[in-house]
Write a structure and sequence with these properties.
α2 links the parallel β1 and β2. α7 packs across α13 and α13 runs antiparallel to α14. The longest helix has 16 residues. The protein is α/β, with parallel strands linked by helices.
Length: 433
């Protein structure tokens, strides 16, 4: 065997990614008459999707790689792929408008694209927040929150296909970052609740007036009624003493970790309203309402301490039957594969190991693909094996394992049959059937 191919798995087909000049083989739309998928790569690194798509009908239009944090990677892109625009920092306020303008410009340049070419976005957000290297802080780490920023970019950009990759620790993150991600992408928006009884409490009414006054003075600041509508679980917790205590003092690993973190901040004097923080730690709703009444900014000074303990409006929470023992207590752990059917997107995820694809080392990662609902695309075809000779034994149950009612529609979660060695079967998948 040629030394160039030494170490390759003989059972896999390989694509040589570069031409004689050392550059990627770009898809020729005019010569083939085939319109490529227009792709955006976030957290681009040195461009694995860009390289892997060589010779395929996929065109990378833009990337996002932070020039200040990753100058060497940006230099690689500038040298090896000068035709691709780097949008730099994904957290920039004008990131999405600039990204959309690039896609529109690409469509205008080539009439073959028509009005609606397929668009795709891929990214592996920083993994440190979900791995031991970053002390597994999850969404309490700014790097962990970049996964949700990426999801929002994909949603605002209206991409037809969304791909995400990360370490398997994301599935057992104590802040449930993965539950936030799949709920957000699926289009989950929990039902609003009637919190009007709180208006009868003078303390809450005073907090409403303070927040509305602040919102009228500063652009972009939301008021308390808007917060209550967009955070139904937090609103529900404020309605009764029992509900507040159940949320703030829940017997879960997540609540314990959040409480320890808040205690440390109170001890260090690193909280805007110590009275509100202490009320959360003790599960005292009355003391919390007192603190809100005294605050000039009840959202950023008080509710910021309660909100992490609550289920977010877009967050999917795995049922107790899926939980595993973590440090002697029940902790959250999403399965290694699954499918989510939501009102906006259908998505699938699966843990895969690099050693099964020709790489001489074990390197497990979770891969997720999401497609627009009703698009005719099936994300399970991207990720799951449908082996021949298997019949009558569906890899996923017909009945959803989890159903959450939302304002936009139901969100259903399907997980594999634990007795199956393979993910899927030779029969057609039946998500939602």
């Amino acid at each position: 065997m040629d030394s160039k191919y030494k170490g390759r798995n003989p059972n896999l087909d390989y694509l040589d990614h570069f031409g004689a000049d050392g550059r990627k083989i770009l898809w020729d739309t005019e010569a083939t008459g085939v319109v490529p998928i227009l792709m955006t790569e976030c957290f681009a690194g040195v461009g694995a999707p860009y390289v892997a798509s060589s010779g395929l009908p996929i065109k990378t239009v833009a990337i996002s790689e932070h020039s200040g944090l990753a100058p060497s990677q940006c230099a690689v892109w500038a040298t090896r792929a000068p035709e691709v625009t780097n949008l730099d920092d994904i957290t920039a306020g004008d990131f999405v408008p600039r990204m959309m303008e690039l896609l529109e410009e690409e469509k205008r340049k080539n009439p073959l694209y028509g009005l609606n070419p397929v668009t795709a976005i891929f990214g592996g957000s920083p993994c440190q927040a979900f791995s031991f290297a970053g002390k597994r802080q999850g969404l309490r780490d700014d790097r962990g929150n970049l996964a949700l920023r990426y999801a929002n970019v994909a949603i605002e950009g209206g991409y037809d296909i969304v791909g995400w990759e990360n370490v398997v620790g994301a599935l057992s993150d104590k802040t449930n970052g993965f539950g936030h991600l799949i709920g957000l992408l699926s289009g989950l928006s929990r039902m609003k609740i009637d919190w009007s009884p709180l208006i009868c409490d003078d303390r809450f009414l005073k907090a409403v007036e303070a927040s509305e006054g602040l919102a009228s003075q500063e652009e972009g600041v939301i008021d308390l009624p808007a917060f209550m509508d967009s955070n139904p679980h937090a609103a529900e917790a404020l309605l009764t003493d029992e509900g507040f205590k159940a949320v703030a003092c829940a017997d879960t690993v997540k609540a314990e970790v959040l409480a320890d973190d808040l205690k440390a901040k109170v001890k260090a004097g690193d909280v805007a309203c110590p009275k509100a923080a202490k009320a959360v730690l003790s599960g005292d709703r009355q003391a919390f309402l007192d603190a809100m009444a005294e605050s000039s900014d009840p959202i950023d000074e008080c509710l910021i301490h309660l909100a992490p303990f609550c289920t977010a409006a877009h967050e999917l929470v795995s049922p107790e039957s899926w939980w595993t023992k973590v440090m002697g207590k029940h902790g959250q752990r999403w399965p290694s594969a699954g499918v989510v059917v939501g009102p906006e997107r259908v998505l699938a995820w699966r843990v895969m190991d690099a050693q099964e694809y020709g790489v001489p080392q074990r390197r497990k990662r979770v891969f997720l693909f999401a497609v627009k609902a009703g698009s005719g695309l099936d994300p399970t075809k991207f990720l799951f094996d449908f082996p021949e000779g298997v019949s009558g034994e569906p890899g996923f149950s017909r009945k959803p394992d989890l159903v959450v009612d939302g304002e936009k529609g139901k969100v259903m979660v399907f997980v594999p049959d634990v007795k199956m060695k393979k993910f899927g079967t030779s029969i057609e998948p039946h998500w939602g059937g």
